[in-house]
Write a structure and sequence with these properties.
By secondary structure, the chain is of the alpha/beta class. It is built from 16 helices and twelve strands.
């Protein structure tokens, strides 16, 4: 880790009521010394001090609050100073200019404060990524799960597996050094049971649906149907704006178009698609292929039908592979009788008028119901990133390959690979940990 002191504006740049500057490093107190009236010899950690803020030449910049966080009890594990000022562009510019003139100070790189926190053992990679998710959170459910991850939900689970594997590695490494010794039967049984239990837990973790990744990226809901069924009108009604062109001319929509929405805390990405029909027009054909492709990959599919001429044929193939994801919606209820509406509703279909925005809330309620049935606060610890899934698949394969009937060196290598792979998720694995396990069991004085 670099020993230089870094600084940055931690609040959003631009006009605001308050601006917060963060300084981290061995010489962070120099910012207080050169830019305030506070005596750094008498300053207390975690106390707020009101002071005049000046540049290094002594010219007044503002009056503000200064807080000192003494190492290691700080976000980065280093000495941190926070300067709170008014958020005018002039004040922000002056403070940053003054900080840049202090010797050994430099502007922080993106994410460098969190990187230093990681290197100083204040957080692991999953917690750091949880912090990034919290900053990026746009819905309440994203916020809740980011906080769970920041609090160590994933770290504790993955670290528990890694600790068990490191224990096994310690046993195996010890016996590699004494090839004439055989592993005791009870130890063999203990190792095999531990590996089996960890492998089963990882497999169960992997078998979860991709809800965590979906919460991170957004649940995909695709609208499909024949031309002029009202897909674009429904899309605009959901978006509450003219997001796409609405026309009576069949084939107007030729490409998939997305909008992002927050439905009761869940991030939803709606996709409008080309109308499903037989056509010789090459570009429209490609749009229809994309529509089916998007539908197959979607979390939910809104199958929109024209209430005046209901045709289920375009959805028959989807029924075979995606039946549980399909929501049937009858559009143009303003043009059909009340009796017809009741008939479709009795079959479980939702009737709407996209043109007059009737029934839109029913669709949103159904989407929320289907997602919340599968994703709730009690969903446990979920995989939130694709890289976690890829690494855990690799760990699972290594544990499948583990077998004490082959040479102990090869068995140890399977465990070593698995532990190292988990370390790629959390960012923590050291050779010293294995040595500590081995020598930690020795008697005092040995």
């Amino acid at each position: 880790m670099a020993k230089d002191t870094i600084y940055a504006l931690s609040t959003v740049s631009g006009k605001s009521g308050v601006a917060v500057f963060r300084i981290s490093g061995e010489e962070a107190l120099k910012a207080i010394k050169y830019m305030s009236l506070i005596d750094i010899e008498k300053i207390n950690s975690r106390h707020a001090y009101f002071s005049l803020i000046h540049d290094i030449k002594g010219e007044t910049i503002d009056h503000g609050i200064i807080i000192y966080f003494k190492s290691p009890s700080s976000f980065t594990g280093e000495d941190i100073v926070e300067i709170h000022t008014h958020g005018s562009k002039a004040v922000i510019s002056s403070v940053l200019e003054s900080l840049s003139r202090i010797e050994n100070f430099r502007l922080a790189e993106p994410g460098e404060f969190s990187k230093r926190a990681f290197y100083n053992g204040k957080m692991d990679l999953t917690e750091a990524e949880g912090l990034a998710d919290l900053i990026d959170a746009q819905t309440s459910e994203q916020q809740k799960y980011a906080l769970k991850q920041m609090d160590g939900g994933l770290k504790n689970l993955y670290e528990s597996w890694r600790e068990k594997l490191i224990d096994i590695m310690a046993y195996l490494e010890a016996y590699i050094d004494f090839p004439d010794e055989e592993l005791p039967t009870d130890l063999i049984k203990k190792i095999e049971n531990t590996v089996l239990n960890v492998r089963n837990e990882i497999n169960q973790h992997l078998q979860q649906s991709r809800l965590g990744e979906r919460l991170h990226e957004g649940f995909r809901v695709v609208i499909i149907g024949e031309p002029n069924a009202g897909k674009s009108s429904l899309f605009n009604a959901l978006a509450r704006k003219e997001a796409v062109i609405v026309s009576d001319i069949a084939g107007t929509t030729r490409d998939a178009i997305d909008i992002y929405m927050d439905i009761n805390g869940y991030p939803i990405i709606f996709t409008d698609t080309a109308g499903l029909r037989d056509t010789e027009e090459e570009i429209e054909q490609k749009g229809i292929e994309i529509a089916y492709e998007k539908a197959n990959k979607a979390d939910l599919i809104i199958c929109l039908l024209d209430g005046e001429k209901v045709n289920l044929l375009p959805f028959l193939n989807l029924e075979k592979t995606s039946k549980n994801k399909m929501i049937y919606v009858i559009n143009k209820k303003d043009k059909i009788s009340v009796e017809q509406c009741f008939k479709w509703e009795d079959k479980g279909y939702i009737t709407i008028s996209a043109k007059y925005q009737e029934g839109i809330e029913e669709i949103l309620k159904e989407i929320n119901k289907r997602i919340s049935e599968n994703f709730t606060d009690s969903s446990g610890i979920l995989i939130t990133r694709h890289r976690y899934r890829e690494i855990l698949n690799s760990v699972f394969k290594s544990l499948e390959n583990f077998n004490l009937h082959k040479s102990i060196e090869l068995s140890a290598e399977d465990i070593r690979i698995a532990a190292r792979e988990i370390g790629k998720i959390t960012g923590r694995i050291e050779v010293n940990e294995i040595l500590d396990k081995i020598f930690g069991s020795f008697c005092i004085g040995k």
